[in-house]
Structure formats: C-alpha cells, structure tokens
Amino acid sequence: MNQEKSIFSKIIDREIPADIVYEDDKCIVIHDINPKARVHLLIIPKKPIDTLFDLKPEDRDLMGHMMLLLPQLANAQGLDGFKTQINTGASGGQEVFHIHIHLMGN
Predict the structure, then answer these.
(1) 3-state DSSP call for residue 70?
(2) How many C-beta atoms lie closer than 10 Å to residue 66's C-beta?
(3) Is 102 an active-site residue?
(4) Considering the entire predicted model, what is its pTM?
(5) Which of 40, 98, 100, 102 is an active site residue?
(6) What percent of the chain clears pLDDT 70, i.e. is strictly above it?
(7) Do 42 and 30 contact (CB within 8 A), yes or no?
C-alpha cells in the first residue's frame, strides 16, 4: 500500500474541500472536478486501497456495497442509464492510487 496520503484520503479527512454528494461509514461520493459527462461522480471507499490488484477477501463487502450504491446514485441524479469505470494501475489510466469508481451519465 502506498504510504503517502492520497487526495481522496485528504477529502475524506476534510483536509481539502470537495462537492460531496453522498457519504456513509464505508464510502464517500463526490463530483469529479474534470467531468467527462453531465453527471460524473466518484465513489471512493474510506478504506485506502491503492488498486484492484490490492483487494483482499475482506474487501468483498466494501466493494459490493459500492456496486449496490451505483444505481441508487444514478437514480438520485435523474439518470436512466449510466456507465461505470475503474482504472487500475498507471498503464490502466489510474491517476489517483486509491480505488474509486467513476459513475457517468448524460
């Protein structure tokens, strides 16, 4: 695991501001600062996990929680369809090494 605190951890800890859409004990959801669609949210687990490669069996419930949250968030944003994306590793386009799911829709 990366020892340096990610921008997402700083947002979770309220060290830097973000446009928060939703939050619970497991994750936080924010608007992407560089949106690629009319609705572009980031679903970020509060547990810092660098990439999908770093998931452990005990993270199953956390990832399931985030997946089940996606359609609820999409409905709340008025979307009748959406796209999700998880970039993994630098060669997979990941820029922030703290797992997050992009939810995008128009």
Answers:
(1) helix
(2) 22
(3) no
(4) 0.94
(5) 100
(6) 97
(7) yes
28, HSE (Cβ side, Cα atoms, 13 Å):
19
Specify the residue for token string 């949106």: 35
Sign of CA dihedral 35, 29, 83, 97: positive
Going along the chain from its start, the domains and CATH numbers come out as 7-105 (3.30.428.10)
Residue in the structure block whose two tokens are 């419930």: 61
pLDDT value of residue 58: 98
Q: What are the contacts of 68-72 at 24+ separation with CB within 8 A?
A: 69/22, 69/27, 69/29, 69/43, 70/43, 70/101, 70/103
Q: Say whether 32 sits in a helix, a strand or coil.
A: coil
Q: How many other CB atoms are there within 10 angstroms of residue 90's CB atom?
A: 10
